Amino acid sequence: MVNTKEFRVVFVSTESYDNALLIAKILISENIAACCTVIPNIKSFFGWQGTLVERNENLIIAKTSEANLNILESRVTELHTDEVPEIISLPLSESSSGYLSWMQLAIGDR
Fold first, then answer.
1. Can you tell me the distance from the alpha carbon of 67 to that of 49, in angstroms, rounded to the nearest whole number?
2. CA 107 to chain centre
3. Structural domains in the chain (count)
4. Could you give the CA distance from residue 43 to residue 50 in angstroms, rounded to a whole number?
C-alpha cells in the first residue's frame, strides 16, 4: 500500500437514482473523478427545517484528487436536485500503487 494524501473519496447522496447516475457519468466524462460507484436504495434520516426526514437515497462514492474537489463540488451542486446536497470528502490515506497510478491517468492534472 502507498501512503498518499492527494487523493479523496467523496460521498454524495441523491434522492433520485437517475440523478445519481447523471452526476456519476458527468463526473467521469469531464475527468473530475476517476471512478464513481452508485449504491442504490439506502435509507437516510436527517433533520431539515425543523422536521425529521426519512427517505430512500442513492449513494455516489467518487474517487478523485484534492485538486478536483472545488470543481466536483461545483458540478454536483449544479446537477443535484437537493437545495443543499450532501458532499463529504475524506482523504484517501492508503491505496495500492497501481490504483493510484490509474486514478492519476484517469483524472489528469488540473
1. 33
2. 14
3. 1
4. 19
Q: Which domain holds residue 48?
A: 2-107
Query: What is the value of pTM for the model shown?
Result: 0.92
SS3 48: strand
Helix (H, G, I), strand (E, B) or coil at 26: helix
Identify the residue whose cell numbers are 449544479. Answer: 78
Return per-residue pLDDT of the chain as tens, 110 residues.
Answer: 666 778 999 999 999 999 999 999 999 999 999 999 999 999 999 999 999 999 999 999 999 999 999 999 999 999 999 999 999 999 998 889 899 889 989 998 66
Q: Say which CATH number the domain at 91 has.
A: 3.30.70.120
Question: What is the grid cell recorded at 5?
Answer: 494524501
Q: Give the span between the Cα atoms of 24 and 19, in whole angstroms.
A: 9
| C-alpha grid cell, residue 2 | 502507498
